[in-house]
Design a protein that fits this description.
With about 190 residues, the protein is mainly beta. The chain is built from one helix and 19 strands. The protein has one helix spanning about 25-30, and strands spanning about 5, 10-15, 30-35, 45, 50-60, 65-70, 75-80, 80-90, 90-100, 110-115, 115-120, 130-140, 140-145, 150, 155, 160-170, 175, 180-185, 185-190.
């Protein structure tokens, strides 16, 4: 019994040639450190290290994600370290990606805290990355606190880069407090 725990793992030095054309994080991510689907209340993803992911194929279908969660209910994502993603040509990069298209069970919270994420500062990476997101999560009975997210590098003018991207402001109470979000990625029209 008990709730699932994904704890104290090191996932590193993963190289993948990638898939072409589909950048959906849950169905064709080239590299994902941990994918959690429909977890139980009380699930904890904590104290994991995910780094040194690299892709070697020059196409737009490569995605790299540290932690991907679908339908978060009563979940803690804490004390994780995600950094050092490099690829020839990335589709989407995300440190923590929570997709919650459903609704949370009443009274259960999504807590994302004490994580460190650094993306965009690794070569030959990221000049052409489509989208870089440090933390993506719904604000639906959610607390996001005490995280440090650093996004750097140069990228195309028309690409989206966010240290924190929140979706749907619904069921309170929501809290985004005591975080350090830094997005120093330079949008450069000469990069394609």
């Amino acid at each position: 019994g008990g709730s699932p725990q994904v704890t104290s793992n090191t996932i590193s030095a993963i190289v993948n040639g990638g898939l072409y054309g589909d950048t959906d994080i849950f169905t064709s991510a080239s590299i994902t450190g941990a994918i959690i689907l429909d977890e139980q209340a009380g699930t904890r993803i904590w104290n994991n290290k995910m780094y040194d992911f690299s892709g070697t194929v020059n196409n737009t279908g490569i995605s790299m994600v540290g932690i991907a969660v679908s339908y978060a209910t009563g979940l803690d994502i804490a004390n994780n370290l995600v950094h050092s993603f490099s690829t020839v040509y990335a589709g989407n990069l995300a440190g923590i990606y929570v997709d919650n298209s459903g609704s949370l069970t009443s009274g259960l919270r999504l807590n994302i805290y004490n994580n460190m994420i650094s993306l965009g500062n690794d070569s030959p990476m990221v000049a052409r990355a489509y989208k870089i997101q440090g933390i993506t999560a719904p604000l639906n009975n959610t607390t996001i606190s005490n995280n440090s997210v650093n996004i750097t590098g140069n990228g195309p003018f028309d690409r989206t880069t966010t240290a924190l991207y929140v979706t749907g402001v619904a069921s309170p109470p929501n809290r985004v407090v005591n975080n350090i979000f830094q997005n120093n990625r330079v949008r450069n029209s000469s990069v394609s």
